[in-house]
Amino acid sequence: MTVINKEKCTGCGTCVPYCPLGAISVVSKKAVIDQAICPNCYVCVRNKVCPFDAIEKQEIDTFIGQFQHIISDPVETTEQTGVPGRGTEESKTNDVTGRVKKGEVGICIDMGRPGIGCRLRDVEKVAMAVTSAGLKLEGEDTTPLAMLMEDNSKGKIKEEYLDTNVLSIIIEGKCPMETFPEIIKALKKVEKEIDTVFSLGVMVRVDENGYSPILEQMEQLGLPKPYRGKVNVGLGRPLVDE
């Protein structure tokens, strides 16, 4: 965690605009870090923003504090997944992993953003909504979020973590193609109940003509037509026809 050395701090305020969640402020001519907001991203420390070296690191002695730091600091790597940053490849390497099969839809719900952040309480609301609609969440070997779950099959996060603030985190899972409309309906409902933002990523396998019925389903559901995407051509490890 980061703290302010009051003896070194001059209250100049140079550090304030660097915090991506606004956790730093100046009170009584000294900088203060609100630990309830700080995501342990170490942006302020890593970039040496204080001209007087008043921002210092202290050992993070809790699991959730270490979790915050690992998924918020892009130079860290999640041990369980072996992936840096937020610890998940978001199904982007499906040509190698084969996680999403034909007839399935991979769902990536990217919650929060630097400048906004999100509480895990809101993450739980979304996770429980989509699992109730039929989404099967990925496990610990794929996504760090699973490490916080009391019941991964229901999207239920352990109670003691719900007030934790993070820069962003990804809810990732998959469902049969016919379940996709129910997932979207659940997202449209729960988006009105949370105090943050999220973006939706959809991963599918296409046929030999590059077609997937998901595009038609999205249009029927009133979703805007995708204007960007990524195509995996299967050069890493060609998959069996499934």
Note the topology.
Elements: E1 2-4, E2 24-27, E3 30-33, H1 43-46, E4 55-57, H2 63-72, E5 77-78, E6 83-84, H3 94-97, E7 104-112, E8 118-119, H4 120-132, E9 136-137, E10 149-151, E11 156-157, E12 165-166, E13 168-176, H5 180-190, E14 198-203, H6 214-220
Antiparallel strand pairs: 1-4, 2-3, 5-6, 7-13, 7-14, 8-12, 9-13, 10-11
Q: Report the portion of residues in β strands.
A: 15-25%
* Low-confidence runs: none
Structural class per helix/strand content? Answer: alpha+beta
Number of strands: 14
* Major beta sheet summary: 4 strands, antiparallel
Summarize the structure.
With 242 residues, the protein is of the alpha+beta class. It has helices at residues 43-46, 63-72, 94-97, 120-132, 180-190, 214-220, and strands at 2-4, 24-27, 30-33, 55-57, 77-78, 83-84, 104-112, 118-119, 136-137, 149-151, 156-157, 165-166, 168-176, 198-203. The chain has a four-stranded antiparallel sheet, with helices on one face. A two-stranded antiparallel sheet has the order 1-4. It has a two-stranded antiparallel sheet with strand order 2-3.
Structure description:
The chain has 242 residues and is α+β, with helices and mostly antiparallel strands. 20% of the residues lie in helices and 22% in strands. It has 6 helices and 14 strands. Helix 4 packs antiparallel against helix 5.
Keywords for this structure?
two-stranded antiparallel sheet, alpha+beta, 6 helices
